[in-house]
Amino acid sequence: MALKMTDRVVDGVAVVAMEGRIVLGEESTALREKVKSLLASGQKKVVLNMNNVTYIDSSGLGALVASHSSARAQGAFLKLCHLGSKFQEILQVTKLVTVFEVFPTEAAAIASFSK
Fold first, then answer.
1. Radius of gyration for the chain, computed over Cα atoms and rounded to the nearest angstrom
2. Can you tell me whether residue 4 is helix, strand or coil?
3. pLDDT in tens, 85-105
């Protein structure tokens, strides 16, 4: 199943809701391109809602890390929310949980920008 992404702006924060698998190939490329285009349009606050992501492989994780790095390089912030227990576990095993700011809900992630 291809990765579907829908984005909207909530309180000045770009929220990208993702659905499907983030795997090697067009899915991970599409994720990188989406974040790149948001940053190019001047968006400095991005939340990736992972609620409907069913699977992520190592290149999907690579795409997340690359997106996080390019956001940082441009003075922007990328946060994650709604990670499933499996995904949360992967982030802990790979120690990426120390790289990303992770929130239980989209609302909490959006609110974190105004603190």
1. 13
2. strand
3. 889 999 999 999 999 999 999
